[in-house]
Design a protein that fits this description.
Shape: globular
Number of helices: 12
Radius of gyration: 21 Å
Number of strands: 12
Order of helices and strands: HHHHEHEHHHEHEEEHEEEHEEEH
Strand order of the largest sheet: 8-7-6-9-10-12
Structural class: alpha/beta
Distance between the termini: 32 Å
Mean pLDDT: 83
Low-confidence stretches: 36-57, 344-349
Helix content: 25-40%
Length: 349
């Protein structure tokens, strides 16, 4: 398994594989322990029969590179994405030469698997690609749409992936025997190019608001891509509404966090949904907001865009930026989300 960084999707995939061999060039020992808290995890390059431990000098160099890369990216969302790509390319380079025909499966993350998956296919080894980052071509489209709607936003205009990244990502879809995705939206984007598509987590049922909501929580954080400008408009339209949100890196607009009817939660703290009438997930780009899982467990109604809904179904549906539809959904007049009929899983209630 090629694991350049501990994304939630890769951790979830790791938990479903028994005693995997992991190629994780940048990982310090404590990070590896966190990857596999309930069982053994080897810090070996595959295959198990050779290359026992990473050399100390190589480990020191890679950790130094990781610290430098993290320092460069800190506080800049666009740099975080570029740093992620560099980690993935390097891990893929380290893993590919170590793949042999006696392996049963090679698993790699998106943008970090082109060499490994190609070598595995040439040797007749099964391959799986985990789409733990958004599809870049769709990400560009969504960012362009959002920045046209909100031209004052800095982040929405800042990041665009190089064309080579898009080409590599879409080539990986064709190299994998199965592409594992986080959402129905991602599945529909990948399906035309992939041999097979699977959902990382089972579909989980949530409910739409059935009565007027007066206290809501914004899923995802305080960045513009999560719908903060829409929240500001909604507050102006609904004087009785109160909103909770997590303050995260890249807050836009800054004035929102000082609004008298906005309650802020530190970005690292788990939000409490007691007293919340609905969770609103308004992301313009594919996201994985943790508040939706909390809402499903607590029975809190959900309003979500396709980009934010992940594996959750049954919520009130709206398109990104549609404040009128959001207001209607919160008044109890929800538009139901279209069912992901082609997926083989049934909602868990």
């Amino acid at each position: 398994m090629v694991v350049p960084e501990p994304t939630p999707a890769m951790l979830h995939a790791l938990a479903r594989i028994r005693e995997p061999d992991v190629v994780a060039p940048f990982a310090p020992p404590g990070w590896l322990l966190a990857l596999r808290p309930n069982g053994p995890l080897s810090r070996r390059a595959v295959p198990r029969a050779s290359a026992a431990e990473w050399p100390t000098a190589s480990l020191a160099a890679e950790l130094t590179a990781e610290l430098a890369l993290s320092a460069w990216a800190s506080g800049h969302a666009d740099r975080v994405l570029r740093a992620s790509f560099l980690r993935r390319v390097w891990a893929d380079r380290r893993a590919a030469p170590r793949i042999t025909s006696d392996l049963s499966l090679v698993v790699a993350p998106t943008l970090g698997g082109r060499r490994s998956l190609a070598r595995a296919r040439a040797l007749g080894v099964a391959t799986a690609l985990v789409m733990d980052l958004p599809a870049l071509r769709r990400l560009h489209h969504d960012l362009d749409t959002a920045s046209a709607r909100w031209p004052e936003s800095q982040f929405l205009r800042r990041f665009r992936a190089p064309a080579g990244w898009i080409a590599q990502q879409e080539a990986e879809w064709a190299l994998a025997d199965v592409v594992v995705v986080r959402s129905d939206l991602a599945a529909r984007l990948v399906a035309p190019a992939a041999a097979s598509v699977a959902l990382l987590s089972p579909l989980t049922a949530v409910s739409p608001p059935t009565r007027p909501a007066r206290h809501v929580f914004l899923a995802g954080g305080s960045a513009a891509r999560h719908g903060t400008f829409e929240v500001e408009q909604l507050l102006a339209l609904c004087p009785e509404l109160r909103v909770g949100l997590r303050v995260t890196e890249g807050t836009e607009p800054r004035r929102l966090v000082s609004h008298p009817r906005v309650t802020v939660v530190p970005g690292t703290r788990e939000p409490l949904l007691a007293g919340i009438d609905a969770v609103i997930a308004l992301a313009w780009t594919e996201a994985e907001p943790r508040e939706l899982a909390l809402a499903a467990r607590a029975g809190v109604p959900v309003v979500a865009t396709p980009q934010a809904s992940g594996p959750f179904v049954g919520h009130a549906h709206l398109d990104p930026g549609d404040v009128a539809a959001l207001r209607g959904a919160l008044s109890g007049h929800a538009r139901a989300a279209p069912p992901p009929a082609w997926l083989p899983w049934q909602p868990e209630t």
